[in-house]
Amino acid sequence: MGAAFLASWPWDNLGFYKYVLYGPLVGKAAASRAWEAASPDRWILLLLVLFGLRALTYQLWSSFSNMLFATRRRRIVRDGVDFEQIDKEWDWDNFLMLQVLMAATAFYAFPSLRHLPLWDARGLAVALLAHAAATEPLFYAAHRAFHASGRLYARYHSLHHSSRVPQPFTAGLATPLEGIVLGALMALPLAAACAAGCGSVALAFGYVLAFDFLRAMGHCNVEVFPSSLFQAIPVLRYLIYTPTYHTIHHAKREANFCLFMPLFDLLGGTLDDQSWEMQKQTSAGVDEVPDFVFLAHVVDVMQSLHVPFVLRTFASTPFSVQPFLLPMWPFAFLAMLAIWACSKTFVISCYNLRGRLHQMWAVPRYGFQYFLPFAKDGINKQIELAILRADKMGVKVLSLAALNKNEALNGGGTLFVTKHPDLRVRVVHGNTLTAAVILNEIPKGTAEVFMTGATSKLGRAVALYLCRRRVRVMMMTLSAERFQRIRKEAPPEFQEYLVQVTKYRSAQHCRTWIVGKWLSPREQRWAPPGTHFHQFVVPPIIGFRRDCTYGKLAAMRLPKDVKGLGACEYSLERGVVHACHAGGVVHFLEGYTHHEVGAIDVDRIDVVWEAALKHGLRPA
């Protein structure tokens, strides 16, 4: 049996190319120079601008909704928005495309609409009256009909209710039939004003944008009204709905059907009795305490746009520089300066694992700042304050990401646990699991490896582990003192497997390279054909050799029962996190009571690896 009539979008299979449907209007506007005041097709330009502003309205509400650092205490549904919901709402703007075509049709059918004055104050009164007398009751009746009929609900309205967490983009998750009904009802007040001879361009812009503003607000999953407002002016409870009010409708589906005015639910006997009590509780604000925190930092200006509160759909895909980001770069750069000057650690995203809340926090510093000598103390202060805040909140484990655990910065976290010996929160660098991931990527039976960055924290652990397995490790280092220090850590019977080399040509016969330091194209050319580059260098080296293969940074896939995960961690695939992140998760799941800071305990590499696999984490 095929899909019901008007139950699916005709451009579903076009993907991004669906925007070609705007082509005729854009072409007509350009050909007639619609930006000129005397152009007869100026209405086309105004129409396109209006629908651009409509899309921006939903985007801004989406950004607000996902600003967990500002909204988490007043979130109504506390679950995160997962990848499944994001994909489902990917084409949320379908209804806007439909309605711009409906509006263009109206302009062609009624040419007088092309010559509306800029403003007529009388039109506002007519539109408000028509909205209250026609749009509100008709929407209420249509909405109840969609729910009352199992057939209508299943074919046309169940899609809208399939999202677990209401979001501004959920407002656009609808079928063509719903888009037509909503567009017609929205047009009624404007049509009434025009019929009365008092329509205007300003009224069209104002009413439509206010309509979208209220719809996006109702789906934002953040309570924005203080309960004191309704206590001071009780009649407002029936004149304007709240996000809590509409979220109850999404949860119960048998109450709170109104468009914007709960008065019609009161008259129809469908007003949920708990609406205002729940609104009062939500607006009071209650913070959730995470059990695990991954303390990250911003990589660079472009990557700062890869967060849910900027572009949710973009953040749900692995990061890569895209052309549409370029116009946003100046704003992101100014944001960087503001954050550098006056920000503190803030919440980026969250997910749930086995009933426990995990959050990602970000230190307000960018990658390059970690290499500025004068910035070191300030960065450590930010990290220290985040640890103390987590300790005060009752967080169980805090894992340091990337440069936040740099040896030169704070000794891999040692600075903080030494300074605060009574910390209840466990501070973890997660590099034990990082080492395990790197080691388990090396094929069994490998007899010899070449390693750069061998004297680093990770390099040392990997080298010592391999030599114990009787794998010959050629350690590229110019410092004989550092090499000897590491060599002496190995049991005497395995020390012969650690060999110092000072030139890349020494490794031209070895096909297993473990890279912990940046390699230039010139240095990479010493590797023989067929070499595989295992990496733990940040940023990863660029693959110049077509006759070689390049591994990605150590990472693991979170367990399948993770819930509410909707953001990719930098350039990693969905559901995959850096190994140090995974190491912190394992530390929490296992209930380890020690801090994991400073040098990596080589004896624990296999222990942590087995624990990770036991809890359902898998190599990426």
From TrEMBL:
Main location: endoplasmic reticulum
Alphabetized UniProt keyword annotations: Endoplasmic reticulum, Lyase, Membrane, NADP, Transmembrane, Transmembrane helix
Cellular localisation: Endoplasmic reticulum membrane
Superkingdom in the source lineage: Eukaryota
Membrane topology per record: Multi-pass membrane protein
Molecular-function annotations in GO: aldehyde oxygenase (deformylating) activity
Domain Fatty acid hydroxylase: 129-270
EC number: 4.1.99.5
Residue stretches spanning the membrane: 43-69, 90-110, 180-209
InterPro entries: CER1-like_C, Fatty_acid_hydroxylase, NAD(P)-bd_dom_sf, Sterol_Desaturase_Related
A GO cellular component entry from the record: endoplasmic reticulum membrane
Protein's GO biological process: response to stress
Ranges where the Very-long-chain aldehyde decarbonylase CER1-like C-terminal domain occurs: 449-619
Stretch forming the signal peptide: none
Swiss-Prot/TrEMBL catalytic activity: a long-chain fatty aldehyde + 2 NADPH + O2 + H(+) = a long-chain alkane + formate + 2 NADP(+) + H2O
Alphabetized PANTHER family for the sequence: STEROL DESATURASE
Family designation: Belongs to the sterol desaturase family.
Protein name as annotated: aldehyde oxygenase (deformylating)
Organism of provenance: Urochloa decumbens
